[in-house]
Please model this.
Amino acid sequence: MSVAEFLPAATTGHVTVGRTCAGPLEFLRAIVHRTNMNASIKFEVMQTIETLRDYLDVREQPGLEYLFAAALMEGCFAPMTNAEGVYSVLLSKFHGFDRRRQDMSITATTFPIEGRAAQLQKFILLRHQRVNLIRAFHIAQAIDCDGPWTKSGEKDDLFTMLMKVLTGYSK
Model:
């Protein structure tokens, strides 16, 4: 895969608005693409998201994308100054996903969020640390076992554990 496939703005100078994403991880990837950060880090993060999507496809569990996307959004990104509202809307969108196939459109060229460098680096390393990827997969399965809409303290603890395994961040 070429850099142009992952970062069309780097090669063409513009970002597509109105792009439709087929799932939570693709939606996260589109948001990463529209976030102001180092192009090299952006490329690595986007590749790692694709690795995660491929892993879930191989394990025949693409429905778990919603958990990984929510954990990555909350663990790896923070609002820029005076942009807490946009961040909280994005975060609530990610927490509102479930196993169903969802098509989402991106209608902005940029998002006022910034990456947490240490958490993004830990997530990038996940591509090479299969043990942590397998742990994260099993934690996500445990969270999802009784459906995405049930809420409990135990599920919150498991979600925090998933965030910590993926990004090293805990709330």
User: Anything to note?
Assistant: Confidence is low (pLDDT under 50) at residues 1-15. Residues 3-167 form one domain. The longest strand covers residues 19-21. The chain has one domain: 3-167.
